[in-house]
Amino acid sequence: MLSALTEFVLRTVESLGYVGVAFFVMLETVFPPIPSELVLALAGFVASRGEASLAGMIAAATAGSLAGAWMLYAAAALFGPGPLRALVRRYGRWLRITERDLDLAERWFYRWSTLAVLLCRCIPLARSLISVPAGYSRMRLLPFTIYTAMGSLVWNAVFVTAGFLLGERWETVLEYADYLEWATIAAMLAGLAYLAARLARRRLA
User: Fold this and answer.
1) Contact at 8 Å (CB) between 49 and 9?
2) What total of structural domains would you count in the chain?
3) Burial 160-188 (b: 16+ CB within 10 A, else e)
4) Which domain does 174 fall in, by range?
5) What are the Cα distances from residue 47, in Å, to 6, 20, 43, 82, 163?
6) Residue partners of 48: CB distance under 8 A and separation at least 6
7) CA-to-CA separations, 203 to 55, 170, 196, 197, in angstroms, rounded
8) pLDDT tens profile 106-124
9) How many CB atoms lie within 10 A of CB 102?
10) What is the pLDDT of residue 84?
11) Beta carbons within 10 angstroms of residue 18's beta carbon
């Protein structure tokens, strides 16, 4: 099944380029069972063959992430918790989403707010579901967009670049996806800590 999916994604990205990457990333954001690691690594692989630019693939993937996040945000804001939870109860097994997953995303959001929107973009499944409580609470769209773009850009850049550097061995990315995920989160936390320290020093100066 994975090989057939891989072939389909590869052929689509080859033929549609940036549009294909943006479409698949948007789709995997709305339908989490589609693995973003696969799409992003393939995008990097295609770029390594000179059929697209690395920066362009990262930008296209980030645009797709934003589009998918906006769709989930809008659905949550429009329909509210009741209908969406009913949808998960009925079709969640096909989407590999449970109400417990929604509960966890809500707890993270209501505890960490914008930080959750930023960091969860680097956690599979949570990167999609964090948009739901943000929509419920009608989080201001500009901060939601900024933090979504920042987190998605980091995640996309790591996996697209890995696929680019590995070239024909791009599938290695899938084998080490968990390590890359944690490394990405650690790098983001380190960056946030650095910025916070600099801001604190400026206030004390």
Assistant:
1) no
2) 1
3) bbbbbebeeebeebbeebeebbeebbeeb
4) 2-204
5) 16, 13, 6, 43, 9
6) 163, 164, 165, 166, 167, 170
7) 36, 46, 11, 10
8) 888 888 888 888 888 888 7
9) 18
10) 82
11) 18
